[in-house]
Amino acid sequence: MTTTVTSNKVEASSRKKEKTPVAPAAGAVANLGPAFDPFDQGHPFKPSNGPATPDLDVGVGKSDKVHIRLQQRNGRKTLTTVQGLPDKYDYRKLLKVMKKEFACNGTIVREEDADLDENTPAVKKGAGLGDVLQFQGDHRIQIRDFLIAKGFYTEAEAKDSVIVHGY
Known about the structure:
Layout: E1 2-6, E2 9-13, E3 66-72, E4 78-83, H1 91-102, E5 106-109, H2 111-116, E6 132-136, H3 140-149, H4 155-161, E7 162-164
Parallel strand pairs: 3-7
Antiparallel strand pairs: 1-2, 3-4, 4-6, 5-6
Protein name: Translation initiation factor SUI1
Region (Disordered): 1-56
Keywords: Initiation factor, Protein biosynthesis
């Protein structure tokens, strides 16, 4: 506490000593970025703020890739799921043509409907995958060939954009 006298007035003020920042050594790195916590319980597919985590492009969700997967039901029964198709296509018409082509039954699993049903195998809650086409049976290669034959993708584009899981 210091006291100063200024023109017949006495002022009492308390001043705290401020620390001056110390300049880093000449060889030290000045900007290390934000701190990284390796045990952070954040979302596993979203990159965190830390510099040590790479940017993850997982390929699920609304991206430019179509994923064709096979899911085991019970016994020999399987489901083929197609996700990541662009929204510009009418899923109902596409499903109708594919069901006739593959001689199987199928359905569209809407993302908002999947949030209500926790047992839906194709869509996880909050995954942001959009609508998913489900077909009864193993039709992975047939679906890939159908997308190429009908002009959705060329053969060269299909190598990069259509991913068939399980082969």
